[in-house]
Amino acid sequence: MPPAPPASAAALIDRIRKAVDAEPLDRAAAVRIAQALDREPDSILEPLLEAAQELGVRGHGREITVSRNVFIPLTNLCRNRCGYCTFAVRPDSPQAKTYRLDEVRRTARDACRAGCAEALFCLGDKPEVAYRGYRGWLDEGGYASTAEYLVEACRVAFEQGVFPHTNAGVLSGAEMQALRPFNASLGLMLETTSRRLRGRGQAHYYAPDKEPARRLRMTREAGELKIPFTSGILIGIGETPEERVDTLLAIGELQAQGGHIQEVIVQNFHPKPDTPMADVPQPSDALMGGTVALARLLLGPAMNLQAPPNLSPTSLELLVRSGLNDWGGVSPLTIDFINPEAPWPELELLRRRTEAAGYRLRDRLCVYPEFVTDRPDFFEPRMYRALRAATDAGGYPPSGSEVEHEPGRIPAA
Fold first, then answer.
1. 410 — pLDDT class (breaks 50, 70, 90)
2. How far apart, in whole angstroms, are the C-alpha atoms of residue 145 and residue 12?
3. Is 303 within 8 Å of 265 (Cβ atoms)?
4. What does the domain layout of the chain look like in residue ranges?
5. Which residues pair with 65 in a beta bridge?
6. What is the mean pLDDT of residues 134-139?
């Protein structure tokens, strides 16, 4: 028989069990759990996983979803310089690239033929503010901003038969409204509500668009505009356990206000060579799994909770036990341009490992089924017709197959 846990851990375990049925976690209890995960994870990890897994099964059964996507990094120029990022480059870098519209069109067509339903647009924040040459390139094309060019790129991709989901950094309400007709959903990782991390020597010191108030504002406005939205937390970038809890609570509050947050990503920092944070250790498997579990307890059984499988390739089984119900977007065509050192798992291998852990892997679109079936007011009419044409009565792609569509087969406006 294993030894009994210390009295302090026993009390915390009892509180975790109560959170499943009787008494949702408050901030004080959540902070104690987060601190224990940092200092002595073995004392509480198993009970935490058990509680979170039970809540996850209540909310989503034994299904974990995945979205087959193609990554379109529209431009890797960015005015921010985060301490952990290799995606953003300067215009004089050999890796600097901005996709032309014909490249977007060709990539979307290839994705369609490969059975991908999602076009994930990712790009740097407001590069025209930082780089005069890029600003001139936009002017020559007749675009007032990167956001305006993005609208056209999403239109091109959508009309080839894929559903755009855009992560473009901080956008205004007007920019989101302009993107809405050609995007099934939008996203912005909140990452952290910690202003401390904007200080000198911290991860976000040179990143004005990582100011928490700006990211909270955009997320709130997306709800006011009725846009299905992805948010998330990034762990391991120097935040404290208390700051992790406060970030998750802020996401929960925004969801309570707008009802629009369709998924929350718990993402682990991945160190990269030639960055200021290259020598910072990656969060442990226990911290990662425990934080996903804590997110489940704080956000409840109904929330769609995701962790990227390519960033935790040796601990997928632990993550399955943490209460998640989604693996996010996985591309059979393109690399993860944000984390190029972390290859996607092959979809068949991901299926086998998910099933071995006692769950079924199921395809979804970039929009979760409950939005497709129950919330038509969250979409422009043309987008909604396309989503319904690509899904069954439950809001999923046709059972047993990828999304069945061909380039150009999008309902008319």
1. low
2. 51
3. no
4. 7-58, 62-389
5. 326, 362
6. 97
Confidence of residue 5 (pLDDT cuts 50, 70, 90): low
Phi/psi of residue 44, nearest 5 degrees:
-135, -5
Under DSSP, the state recorded for 88 is: -
CB 153 within 8 A of CB 98: no
Residue 71 identity (one-letter amino acid)? F
Q: So what's the pLDDT on residue 406?
A: 47
Q: Which residues of 316-346 are buried (b: 16+ CB within 10 A; e: fewer)?
A: bebbbbbbbbbbbbbbbbbebbbbeebebbe
Q: Token digits for 94?
A: 């050999």
- Please, are residues 77 and 42 in contact by the beta-carbon 8 Å criterion? no
- The per-residue pLDDT for range 355-371, each reduced to its tens digit, is 999 999 999 999 999 99
Structure tokens at 113: 């033929």
* Residue whose C-alpha is closest to residue 316's, from 66, 117, 32: 66
| The CATH number, out of the four listed (3.20.20.70, 3.30.70.20, 3.40.50.980, 3.30.413.10), of the domain defined by the range 62-389 | 3.20.20.70
One-letter identity of residue 398: P
DSSP assignment string, 204-264: TTB-GGG-HHHHHHHHHHHHHTT--EEEEEEESSS--HHHHHHHHHHHHHHHHHHS-EEEE
Tokens standing for residue 251: 């996401």
User: 363-394 burial string, b = 16+ CB within 10 Å, else e?
Assistant: bbbbbbbebbbebeebbeeebbbbbbebbeee
Site of tokens 């379109």: 72
| Tokens encoding 200 | 């000198």
- Condensed to tens digits (0 to 9), the pLDDT of residues 173-195 reads 999 999 999 999 999 999 999 99
The pTM (predicted TM-score) of the whole model is 0.94
φ/ψ region of 236 (left if φ > 0, alpha if ψ in -120 to 50, else beta) reads left
